[in-house]
Amino acid sequence: MKKIIITIDGWSSCGKSTLAKQLAKKLGYVYIDSGAMYRAITLFFLRNHINWSDKLAVTAALKSIVIDFEYNENSRQSEILLNDENVEYLIRDLVVAEKVSEVATIKEVRDFAVAQQQKMGEKKGIVMDGRDIGTTVFPNAEFKIFMTADITTRVERRFKEMVEKNPNVTFEEVKKNLEMRDYIDSNREISPLKKAEDAIELDNTSLTMEQQLAFALKLAKEKMGQ
Ligand code: CDP
Protein backbone atom coordinates (compact mmCIF):
# COMPACT_ATOMS: atom_id res chain seq x y z
CA MET A 1 0.00 0.00 0.00
CA LYS A 2 1.38 3.35 -1.10
CA LYS A 3 2.02 6.05 1.53
CA ILE A 4 0.48 9.33 0.48
CA ILE A 5 0.06 12.94 1.58
CA ILE A 6 -3.48 14.06 2.42
CA THR A 7 -4.23 17.78 2.56
CA ILE A 8 -7.35 19.35 4.04
CA ASP A 9 -7.93 23.04 3.44
CA GLY A 10 -10.95 25.19 4.06
CA TRP A 11 -12.72 27.93 5.96
CA SER A 12 -12.34 28.57 9.66
CA SER A 13 -13.97 26.03 11.88
CA CYS A 14 -15.54 23.82 9.26
CA GLY A 15 -14.29 20.61 10.83
CA LYS A 16 -10.95 20.21 9.09
CA SER A 17 -9.06 19.12 12.16
CA THR A 18 -11.78 16.65 13.21
CA LEU A 19 -11.64 14.94 9.83
CA ALA A 20 -7.84 15.11 9.68
CA LYS A 21 -7.55 13.42 13.09
CA GLN A 22 -10.08 10.74 12.15
CA LEU A 23 -8.27 9.96 8.90
CA ALA A 24 -4.82 9.92 10.51
CA LYS A 25 -6.03 7.53 13.19
CA LYS A 26 -7.65 5.14 10.72
CA LEU A 27 -4.64 5.10 8.41
CA GLY A 28 -1.93 5.19 11.09
CA TYR A 29 -0.71 8.49 9.64
CA VAL A 30 0.77 11.54 11.38
CA TYR A 31 -1.62 14.46 11.83
CA ILE A 32 -0.27 18.00 11.66
CA ASP A 33 -2.35 21.07 12.48
CA SER A 34 -0.67 23.81 10.45
CA GLY A 35 -2.97 26.46 11.92
CA ALA A 36 -1.55 25.66 15.36
CA MET A 37 1.86 26.77 14.07
CA TYR A 38 0.53 30.20 13.02
CA ARG A 39 -1.29 30.45 16.33
CA ALA A 40 1.88 29.57 18.32
CA ILE A 41 3.90 32.18 16.41
CA THR A 42 1.18 34.74 17.14
CA LEU A 43 1.23 33.83 20.83
CA PHE A 44 5.00 34.36 20.89
CA PHE A 45 4.67 37.76 19.15
CA LEU A 46 1.96 38.89 21.58
CA ARG A 47 3.81 37.73 24.67
CA ASN A 48 7.04 39.37 23.60
CA HIS A 49 5.46 42.54 22.26
CA ILE A 50 6.91 42.03 18.80
CA ASN A 51 5.97 44.78 16.36
CA TRP A 52 5.04 42.58 13.41
CA SER A 53 4.82 45.43 10.94
CA ASP A 54 8.63 45.66 11.31
CA LYS A 55 10.27 43.02 9.10
CA LEU A 56 13.54 43.07 11.02
CA ALA A 57 11.75 42.52 14.31
CA VAL A 58 9.82 39.61 12.78
CA THR A 59 12.95 38.00 11.35
CA ALA A 60 14.75 38.32 14.68
CA ALA A 61 11.78 36.95 16.63
CA LEU A 62 11.43 33.92 14.33
CA LYS A 63 15.04 33.01 15.16
CA SER A 64 13.94 32.55 18.78
CA ILE A 65 11.05 30.25 17.96
CA VAL A 66 11.21 26.47 17.90
CA ILE A 67 7.98 24.62 17.19
CA ASP A 68 7.50 20.91 17.78
CA PHE A 69 4.60 18.51 18.10
CA GLU A 70 4.41 15.85 20.81
CA TYR A 71 1.96 13.01 21.27
CA ASN A 72 -0.05 13.28 24.48
CA GLU A 73 -0.99 9.81 25.75
CA ASN A 74 -3.89 11.17 27.83
CA SER A 75 -5.64 13.25 25.21
CA ARG A 76 -4.43 10.83 22.50
CA GLN A 77 -3.57 13.79 20.34
CA SER A 78 -0.50 15.47 19.04
CA GLU A 79 -0.03 18.80 20.79
CA ILE A 80 2.06 21.80 19.90
CA LEU A 81 5.16 22.93 21.78
CA LEU A 82 6.46 26.48 21.57
CA ASN A 83 10.07 26.50 22.75
CA ASP A 84 9.37 23.31 24.73
CA GLU A 85 6.23 24.70 26.38
CA ASN A 86 2.95 22.95 25.60
CA VAL A 87 0.70 25.76 24.33
CA GLU A 88 -2.03 23.61 22.76
CA TYR A 89 -4.66 25.11 25.07
CA LEU A 90 -3.42 28.73 25.14
CA ILE A 91 -3.34 29.16 21.37
CA ARG A 92 -7.10 28.51 21.13
CA ASP A 93 -7.87 31.69 23.08
CA LEU A 94 -9.78 34.48 21.32
CA VAL A 95 -6.88 36.86 22.03
CA VAL A 96 -4.72 34.76 19.68
CA ALA A 97 -7.57 34.17 17.20
CA GLU A 98 -8.03 37.95 16.89
CA LYS A 99 -4.48 38.43 15.59
CA VAL A 100 -3.47 35.16 13.94
CA SER A 101 -4.76 35.94 10.45
CA GLU A 102 -2.91 39.24 10.40
CA VAL A 103 0.32 37.51 11.47
CA ALA A 104 -0.28 34.78 8.87
CA THR A 105 -0.18 37.33 6.05
CA ILE A 106 3.52 38.06 6.74
CA LYS A 107 5.89 36.56 4.18
CA GLU A 108 8.66 35.76 6.68
CA VAL A 109 6.17 33.99 8.94
CA ARG A 110 4.76 31.92 6.07
CA ASP A 111 8.23 30.99 4.77
CA PHE A 112 9.19 29.85 8.27
CA ALA A 113 6.04 27.73 8.75
CA VAL A 114 5.89 26.30 5.21
CA ALA A 115 9.54 25.15 5.28
CA GLN A 116 8.88 23.22 8.47
CA GLN A 117 5.61 21.76 7.15
CA GLN A 118 7.30 20.54 3.97
CA LYS A 119 9.99 18.86 6.04
CA MET A 120 7.35 17.05 8.08
CA GLY A 121 5.88 15.64 4.87
CA GLU A 122 9.12 14.30 3.43
CA LYS A 123 8.34 10.73 4.42
CA LYS A 124 4.65 11.02 3.43
CA GLY A 125 2.09 9.16 5.57
CA ILE A 126 0.76 12.50 6.79
CA VAL A 127 -2.54 14.36 7.01
CA MET A 128 -2.15 18.13 7.29
CA ASP A 129 -4.91 20.70 7.54
CA GLY A 130 -4.84 24.45 6.97
CA ARG A 131 -5.45 27.03 4.27
CA ASP A 132 -2.67 26.57 1.71
CA ILE A 133 -1.64 22.96 2.20
CA GLY A 134 -2.93 21.63 -1.12
CA THR A 135 -1.92 24.76 -3.04
CA THR A 136 1.46 25.84 -1.64
CA VAL A 137 2.82 23.39 0.93
CA PHE A 138 2.15 20.14 -0.95
CA PRO A 139 1.00 21.03 -4.47
CA ASN A 140 1.75 17.43 -5.53
CA ALA A 141 -0.18 15.76 -2.71
CA GLU A 142 -1.98 12.62 -3.83
CA PHE A 143 -5.28 13.44 -2.11
CA LYS A 144 -6.62 16.94 -1.50
CA ILE A 145 -9.84 17.87 0.25
CA PHE A 146 -11.40 21.33 0.34
CA MET A 147 -13.91 21.60 3.18
CA THR A 148 -16.85 23.93 3.57
CA ALA A 149 -19.87 24.25 5.84
CA ASP A 150 -22.38 27.04 6.17
CA ILE A 151 -21.38 29.98 8.36
CA THR A 152 -24.08 29.50 11.01
CA THR A 153 -23.09 25.87 11.51
CA ARG A 154 -19.43 26.84 11.73
CA VAL A 155 -20.08 29.57 14.31
CA GLU A 156 -22.28 27.27 16.38
CA ARG A 157 -19.60 24.57 16.44
CA ARG A 158 -16.78 26.97 17.38
CA PHE A 159 -18.90 28.83 19.96
CA LYS A 160 -19.73 25.56 21.69
CA GLU A 161 -16.04 24.65 21.81
CA MET A 162 -14.92 28.06 23.11
CA VAL A 163 -17.62 28.68 25.69
CA GLU A 164 -16.66 25.44 27.44
CA LYS A 165 -13.24 26.93 28.14
CA ASN A 166 -14.34 30.52 28.66
CA PRO A 167 -17.98 31.19 29.67
CA ASN A 168 -17.55 34.91 28.94
CA VAL A 169 -17.16 34.39 25.20
CA THR A 170 -20.19 35.53 23.20
CA PHE A 171 -21.72 34.07 20.05
CA GLU A 172 -21.34 37.45 18.28
CA GLU A 173 -17.62 37.65 19.13
CA VAL A 174 -17.00 34.20 17.70
CA LYS A 175 -19.02 34.98 14.57
CA LYS A 176 -17.14 38.23 13.99
CA ASN A 177 -13.81 36.48 14.46
CA LEU A 178 -14.59 33.70 11.95
CA GLU A 179 -15.85 36.18 9.37
CA MET A 180 -12.83 38.41 9.80
CA ARG A 181 -10.37 35.51 9.50
CA ASP A 182 -12.13 34.09 6.45
CA TYR A 183 -11.95 37.49 4.80
CA ILE A 184 -8.24 38.05 5.54
CA ASP A 185 -7.32 34.43 4.74
CA SER A 186 -8.99 34.43 1.33
CA ASN A 187 -7.88 37.92 0.31
CA ARG A 188 -4.23 37.98 1.37
CA GLU A 189 -1.50 38.29 -1.22
CA ILE A 190 0.58 35.23 -0.33
CA SER A 191 -1.06 31.79 -0.54
CA PRO A 192 -4.66 32.90 -0.07
CA LEU A 193 -7.22 30.31 0.92
CA LYS A 194 -8.59 28.77 -2.25
CA LYS A 195 -9.53 25.36 -3.52
CA ALA A 196 -6.70 23.61 -5.36
CA GLU A 197 -7.85 22.66 -8.85
CA ASP A 198 -7.47 18.97 -8.11
CA ALA A 199 -9.09 19.07 -4.64
CA ILE A 200 -12.42 17.41 -4.01
CA GLU A 201 -14.97 19.58 -2.25
CA LEU A 202 -16.63 18.34 0.91
CA ASP A 203 -19.51 20.30 2.44
CA ASN A 204 -20.14 18.79 5.85
CA THR A 205 -22.98 21.07 6.99
CA SER A 206 -25.35 18.15 7.31
CA LEU A 207 -22.95 15.23 7.58
CA THR A 208 -22.24 13.32 10.76
CA MET A 209 -18.62 12.66 11.75
CA GLU A 210 -19.05 9.04 10.66
CA GLN A 211 -20.38 10.06 7.26
CA GLN A 212 -17.58 12.50 6.54
CA LEU A 213 -14.99 9.94 7.59
CA ALA A 214 -16.53 7.22 5.41
CA PHE A 215 -16.54 9.57 2.41
CA ALA A 216 -12.90 10.65 2.82
CA LEU A 217 -11.59 7.23 3.81
CA LYS A 218 -12.98 5.56 0.70
CA LEU A 219 -11.27 8.11 -1.55
CA ALA A 220 -8.02 8.00 0.45
CA LYS A 221 -7.86 4.22 0.06
CA GLU A 222 -8.41 4.52 -3.68
CA LYS A 223 -5.48 6.94 -3.88
CA MET A 224 -3.37 4.56 -1.80
CA GLY A 225 -4.06 1.90 -4.37
CA GLN A 226 -5.98 -0.46 -2.12
O1 CDP B 1 -9.36 26.07 13.56
P1 CDP B 1 -9.57 27.17 12.57
O2 CDP B 1 -10.01 26.63 11.24
O3 CDP B 1 -10.44 28.24 13.06
O4 CDP B 1 -8.17 27.90 12.33
P2 CDP B 1 -6.70 27.31 12.37
O5 CDP B 1 -6.58 26.15 11.43
O6 CDP B 1 -6.30 27.12 13.77
O7 CDP B 1 -5.85 28.52 11.73
C1 CDP B 1 -5.74 29.76 12.38
C2 CDP B 1 -5.33 30.81 11.36
O8 CDP B 1 -4.00 30.52 10.89
C3 CDP B 1 -6.18 30.90 10.09
O9 CDP B 1 -7.32 31.72 10.23
C4 CDP B 1 -5.18 31.49 9.10
O10 CDP B 1 -5.09 32.88 9.23
C5 CDP B 1 -3.85 30.89 9.54
N1 CDP B 1 -3.44 29.74 8.73
C6 CDP B 1 -2.80 29.95 7.53
O11 CDP B 1 -2.64 31.09 7.11
N2 CDP B 1 -2.32 28.92 6.81
C7 CDP B 1 -2.50 27.67 7.22
N3 CDP B 1 -2.00 26.67 6.50
C8 CDP B 1 -3.15 27.40 8.44
C9 CDP B 1 -3.64 28.46 9.17
What layout of secondary structure does this protein have?
Elements lengths: L4 E6 L5 H12 L2 E4 H14 L7 H9 L3 E6 L4 E6 L2 E2 L7 H10 L3 H14 L5 E5 L2 H5 L5 E6 L2 H15 L5 H17 L12 E4 L5 H15 L3
Parallel strand pairs: 1-6, 1-7, 2-6, 7-8
Antiparallel strand pairs: 3-4, 4-5
This protein binds cytidine-5'-diphosphate (CDP).
* Unreliable parts: none
**Sheet/helix structural class:** alpha/beta
Bound molecules: cytidine-5'-diphosphate
- Mean of all residue-level pLDDT scores: 96
Query: What distance lies between the first and last C-alpha atoms, to the nearest angstrom?
Result: 6 Å
* Oligomer status: single chain
CATH architecture: 3-Layer(aba) Sandwich
Number of helices: 9
Can you give a write-up of this model?
49% of the residues lie in helices and 17% in strands. The chain contains nine helices and eight strands. By secondary structure, it is α/β, with parallel strands linked by helices. The N and C termini lie close together (6 Å). The longest helix has 17 residues, at 171-187. It has a five-stranded parallel beta sheet. A three-stranded antiparallel beta sheet has the order 3-4-5, with helices on one face. The radius of gyration is 17 Å and the shape is globular. It has a single domain, classed as 3-Layer(aba) Sandwich (Rossmann fold). The protein has helices spanning 16-27, 34-47, 55-63, 94-103, 107-120, 133-137, 151-165, 171-187, 209-223, and strands spanning 5-10, 30-33, 67-72, 77-82, 85-86, 126-130, 143-148, 200-203. Helix 4 packs parallel to helix 8 and helix 7 packs across helix 8. Bound molecules: cytidine-5'-diphosphate. Cytidine-5'-diphosphate binds next to helix 2, helix 4 and helix 8.
